[in-house]
Fold this sequence. Notes:
Helix content: 55-70%
Largest sheet: none
Mean pLDDT: 81
Order of helices and strands: HHH
Low-confidence stretches: none
Shape: elongated
Amino acid sequence: MDNFERWPLLCSPVELSDEAAVQIAEFLMDLALWFESTHLSQMRRHRQTMREQPLYNPYQLELFDPF
């Protein structure tokens, strides 16, 4: 299932006036700022746990000497 089948209204082009495009963009920015301010601690905690995971497998044998 591609994105068009999931969200047909979001993927199809919509004719907007310049004013409507600006208003929608401002609304989406305000929504993103509100969401980030209310869920910032959760997002930081998630990013911290993602950062703590090793980028390599510690059990993998080294084939070459490190530089």
